[in-house]
């Protein structure tokens, strides 16, 4: 077969452009492709919602890829085990209540599940601002991550959505933008970012699932962003809370869409 270089280029540009145009309007925009974001995208897309996910890095998976200190295995507890099993991840019992899984297999399986459910994933895209209309988040302002990293003066583009999920981890980037632009308006004791507390796995795991939710009209936090915004403990390479948080935020949004 004779391959034409320009045809290859055209295939990529036209296909990607169509997908990006379709992503300009969505039901839910997930910011951050770590485990919480991918799980949320899966459950929302599976429920028939139009979901787009923006990941600022080249790779998705967040901190799950590296396991603990680059030992690429993760731990989950009893409550989260069924979620990994739903994605077909091979889990091994370590001791009562503790299960291990390959970090690589877990990320690959969850990502594949989200895509096959219908979620659209765009990597190398950063969110630099939000759109607010009548005291509600109505969209995001996006740009290429390399543009951000290089400090180039390139104007961004806007996408609209009915709901945004901040799954950007410890930095809680979307919630931080809201506080920077609008002041202390979040549903937290201070109205701002409460800040992440020191590592305490037991408390952190319970906190992240319990405090997943809406912090400003149209803006939800999940995963470590929920801990950072609402003042929970970090928990290290146990990822059950991330998975449960992703499922929980999907349930909360679906309850609003279909009361």
CATH fold category name: FAD/NAD(P)-binding domain
Shape: globular
What is the strand tally?
11
Give the helix proportion (percent range).
Answer: 25-40%
* Number of separate domains: 1
Please identify which CATH superfamily we are dealing with: FAD/NAD(P)-binding domain
- Determine the number of helices (DSSP H or I, runs of at least 4 residues): 9
What is the helix/strand order? HEHEEHEEHEEEHEHHEEHH
Average residue-wise pLDDT:
97
Q: Name the poorly predicted regions.
A: none
How much of the polypeptide forms β-strand, as a percent range? 15-25%
In words, what does this structure look like?
It contains 9 helices and 11 strands. It is of the alpha/beta class. The chain has one domain: FAD/NAD(P)-binding domain. The strands form 2 sheets. Strands 1, 2, 6, 7, 8, 9, 10 and 11 form an 8-stranded mixed β-sheet that branches. Strands 3-5-4 form a 3-stranded antiparallel β-sheet. β7 and β8 form a beta hairpin. α2 packs parallel to α4, α2 packs parallel to α9 and α7 runs parallel beside α9.
């Amino acid at each position: 077969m004779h391959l034409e270089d320009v045809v290859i280029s055209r295939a990529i540009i036209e296909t990607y452009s169509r997908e990006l145009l379709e992503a300009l309007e969505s039901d839910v925009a997930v910011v951050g492709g770590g485990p919480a974001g991918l799980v949320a995208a899966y459950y929302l897309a599976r429920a028939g919602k139009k979901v787009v996910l923006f990941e600022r890095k080249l790779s998705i998976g967040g901190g799950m890829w590296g396991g603990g200190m680059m030992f690429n295995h993760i731990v989950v507890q009893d409550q989260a085990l069924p979620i990994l099993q739903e994605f077909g991840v091979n889990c091994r019992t370590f001791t009562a209540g503790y299960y291990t899984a390959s970090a690589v297999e877990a990320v690959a399986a969850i990502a594949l599940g989200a895509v096959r459910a219908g979620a659209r994933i765009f990597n190398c895209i950063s969110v630099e601002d939000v759109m607010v209309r009548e005291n509600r988040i109505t969209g995001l302002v996006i740009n290429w991550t390399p543009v951000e990293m290089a400090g180039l003066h390139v104007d961004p583009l806007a996408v609209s959505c009915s709901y945004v999920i901040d799954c950007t981890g410890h930095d809680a980037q979307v919630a931080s933008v809201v506080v920077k632009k609008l002041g202390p308006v979040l549903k937290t004791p201070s109205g701002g970012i409460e800040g992440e507390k020191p590592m305490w796995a037991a408390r952190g795991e319970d906190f992240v699932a319990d405090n997943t939710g809406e912090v400003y009209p149209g803006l939800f936090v999940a995963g470590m962003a929920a801990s950072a915004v609402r003042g929970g403990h970090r928990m290290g390479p146990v990822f059950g809370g991330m998975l449960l948080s992703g499922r929980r935020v999907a349930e909360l949004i679906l309850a609003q869409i279909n009361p």
